[in-house]
Amino acid sequence: MTQISITAKDRVFVLTGAGISAESGLPTFRAEDGLWAGHSVEEVCTPEAWRRNPEAVWQFYSERRAAGEKAMPNPAHIALAELEAKLGNRFFLCTQNVDDLHERAGSERLVHMHGELAKARCERECGRSPVEDRTIYRSLSEVGHCFCGGRLRPHIVFFGEIPLEMELIQEEIGKATLMLVVGTSGSVYPAANFVHWARMAGARTVYVGPEPPLNASAFTHVVEGKAGVVLPGLFQVE
Ligand code: APR
Fold this sequence. Notes:
Layout: E1 4-6, E2 12-16, H1 35-38, H2 41-44, H3 47-52, H4 54-70, H5 75-87, E3 91-95, H6 101-105, E4 110-112, E5 115-122, E6 131-132, E7 152-156, H7 166-175, E8 178-182, H8 194-200, E9 204-209, E10 221-224, H9 227-230, E11 235-237
Parallel strand pairs: 1-11, 2-3, 2-8, 3-4, 8-9, 9-10
Antiparallel strand pairs: 5-6, 5-7
This protein binds adenosine-5-diphosphoribose.
């Protein structure tokens, strides 16, 4: 069994994608039976879709909320929370996922670069912080408005929008000596570039997933297997 040794000098940056939540029963995006096989990105996940048909966008993300509520963290989420408990501030987690399974497993030092399902924000970007919102909307008339009059939209980074927390992410990648990437196809940027940034900063780079990602050649190790099977035994912390 592959093991990754982590010494007292290491700083670990972890990037996760939809694959880490697959064993919790949440579908990935690009599998044959994935979310983008059943829905059109252009109709539910772009600024144009929001302008054209906000009800269809809220319907899609309401369905995601309903599925996310039923899901439970799996051994991969738990293994990362346990690693963080050992490494403290030498650990940083960046997830592309909008579910809250990392938090529910106990992770604390994490950012959601593509947003969070359980929040909504003003469509006018009027400056108010996102608010907690777990409502499963049945129609647009149920969706609230901001004080400024703008409609609340999902706190999700649509295609064409800039991911969140990029400054902090770049800073953390620059400091990391080990980058671990789990369950992401390497097809969405800028996340697919993180491994290159880590390599330029001299870090070891490890990928875990059942198949090599599109950017596999940039990794120093590719460990093929399901995250929930591989991660619990992967780390040897010295
Ligand atoms: N363990 C680990 N990886 C897995 C597992 C598993 N049990 N099952 C599937 N995978 C892997 C697949 O092999 C695939 O490489 O998860 C990856 C999922 O890829 P995508 O569906 O493309 O999801 P992701 O890379 O997270 O998508 C990135 O695209 O649509 C947007 O904003 C959305 O954040 C998302 C982004």
